[in-house]
Amino acid sequence: MSTNPAAPPAFHLLAKPTGAICNLDCAYCFYLPKEKLYPGSRFRMTDEMLETYIRRLIEAHRFPEVTIAWQGGEPMLMGLDFFRRSIEIQQNYRRPDMTILNTIQTNGTLINDEWVAFFREHNFLVGISIDGPRERHDVFRRDKKGLPTFDRVIQGLDCLKEHGVEVNALVTIHKANADNPLDVYRFLRDELGIKYIQLIPIVERRNEMDAVSDFSVTAGQYGRFLITIFEEWVRSDVGEIFVNMFDVALANWSGEPVSLCVFSPTCGMTLAMEHNGDMYACDHFVSPDHFLGNISEVPMIEMVASPKQLKFGRDKLDLLPRFCRKCKVRFACHGGCPKDRFIKTPDGEAGLNFLCAGYKAFFKHIDRSMRIMTGLLRENRAPAEIMQMVANEQGQTKTSLGNVGRNDPCPCGSGKKYKQCHGR
């Protein structure tokens, strides 16, 4: 373990044993082009590198729990024997007081009974990438032959659920599903029985210009998407369905540490490692400018705590525009992910997040609900009690609106006509 005072007790590292290699060819994937960084490579982590990775990761942690996060590309292309070896190596190096959690993010198309038995035996948390029902998912998530993947993903997901493997859904929000939030949410909740949902906006720049790709979500779309799902969730699903955006928002309103770097004041504690042991500042910053070194040559923790990486993390705060610093929802947003901070503020300063307007609309919309749930937590009560509060308010509102004409002022006090407010 490092004696460097700047070294954190724990950090998160996304290991990519196949690099950018994948059996799918999703139109919006930002990682597939990273293959160009390693011309001529086989893109397979060797057994020697696997052992070095696990040993270095365990050595670098002063915290009793270590997460080994497998990602890609498609990590399952390594084959089951690779992951069996990884479990053996983990047991060889695990300290007596240490708990090791394995997670894997997969497109789900390669899952079968043998894989599922392994995941269940070793308590893997499996993340499945799925973008909603068939007509939303298959627009961009296609294989190398251009064929749709929905049926194969569902087959893999059904296999996981049948054997009781813990699953979460990673849903990317883009042009094909951004205007259909309830279709996506209800499909995951009602048809697939998913209880843990990650919502990830797709924002892909065209070169270094402010313009984004045709499949990217707009700020307005993303804000409306989140608000619409939140309204369904806060009425029906608090404590039953866990959405990363809502969980992180509640943590920020409560003044608790957040689990998502996007909405933390600084970043730099979620790094990426390529198949050959090269480490980079972040999954979204795998480039020569953000290369930190190779774990065969430099102790992992020294790269995590290096001046270069610490500056990368502090820049998120230090480069925050004045427009953001005085924003009322800065505490919830913190400028968002640096990769998306490429437009200008209204006064012309660089570094505003492309999704700013959407984030601002969402965080302002949920403020009252978050304050209520924060108050419940401080009273050692369940945040889920808000659902009954909302139901009671709706009942009172319906009663008070019973005899209001469409062109009358809305009794809620908004100043709008009833037909433009609660009568919509």
Could you characterize what this model shows?
The model has no long low-confidence stretch (mean pLDDT 94). With 424 residues, this protein is of the alpha/beta class. It contains 15 helices and twelve strands. The strands form two sheets. Strands 7-6-5-4-3-2-1-8-9-10 form a ten-stranded mixed β-sheet. Helix 3 links the parallel strand 3 and strand 4.
Tell me the series of helices and strands, N- to C-terminal.
EHEHEHEHHEHEHEHEEEHHHHEEHHH
Strand residue percentage: 5-15%
Distance between the termini: 61 Å
- Rounded Rg: 23 Å
Number of helices: 15
Q: Shape from CA axes?
A: globular
**What is the arithmetic mean of pLDDT?**
94
Structural class designation = alpha/beta
**How would you write the strand order of the largest sheet?**
7-6-5-4-3-2-1-8-9-10
Helix content: 25-40%
Say how many strands there are. 12
Task: List low-confidence stretches.
Answer: none
* Largest sheet properties: 10 strands, mixed
Helix-strand layout with pairing:
Elements (H helix, E strand, L loop, with lengths): L11 E4 L31 H14 L4 E6 L9 H14 L5 E8 L6 H9 L3 E5 L4 H4 L12 H13 L4 E7 L7 H11 L4 E6 L17 H18 L5 E2 H11 L15 E4 L4 E3 L10 E4 L5 H5 L2 H12 L3 H4 L4 H4 L9 E2 L5 E3 L3 H10 L1 H12 L7 H15 L24
Parallel strand pairs: 1-2, 1-8, 2-3, 3-4, 4-5, 5-6, 6-7
Antiparallel strand pairs: 8-9, 9-10, 11-12
Helix pairs in contact: 1-2, 7-13, 8-14
